[in-house]
Amino acid sequence: MTCRLADLARDGTARLEAAGIHNPAREARLLLAHVSGLSAARLGAEMDEVAGPDVVCRMDKAVARRCAREPMSHIIGKRLFYKHEFQVTPDVLDPRPETEALVLAALEFPWASVLDLGTGSGAIILSLLAERAKAAGTATDLSPAALGVARANAEALGLAARCDMIQSDWFASVAGCFDLIVSNPPYIAEDEMPDLGPELSFEPRIALTDGADGLTAYRAICTGAGAHLVPGGWLMVEIGLQQGPGVAALMRHAGLVDVRILPDLDGRDRVVQGRASV
To answer: Is the pLDDT of residue 260 over 80?
Structure first.
């Protein structure tokens, strides 16, 4: 029986909808573009084309993976974040749109050097360096596999020469001082993990939770930031929805000034920033 690309899209949409996937038609088209090797624009013009057996098989497997709630980025191997496309694997946290609030906040200030703690895919620091042609940075992660993904993304964006990648437990292997320190650390409390969406079960647990109250990483980051910020340098971190006051208090206790809680585009607390004294 002849099967068109449009038939695969329709079948995929129905299966994804039955599995409770939000916006199933859009996701079915993304999967179809991936398995067929067509761009989204070209796919729209070729929906009446006959799908080869290999495309039919790949689409069936891709839809099954998404119905099992595997993140889309893991299936297609990439994720759009800010202005760029990033390679994503199960070794790194899937970059989320709300994290762009951290990038936007950092770009409000002048800086020439940046440290990204717990870089994962490298989405934050590489987005920042792409906007500042003369800046350089250092990205750390405890996971060698995550650093491999970040290095691949740096190479793809032509930023490898301006971004050192080092394995480090927060500041343990970091030397020198920076104009800006950024981080999206694991901030989900252990008792919140069972209530999260099924997609998160596919992401590295170490990037999601500290196994405690969700503030462990912030304590380490705020405590160590003073020794690695230039006078007047900024620390900026992403937070969970209820963590603003607690993280702001940690920054003030560490001696940072001008501490503020910033919202994301949906108006929810998302970033806490503080400045080292001059």
So the answer is: yes
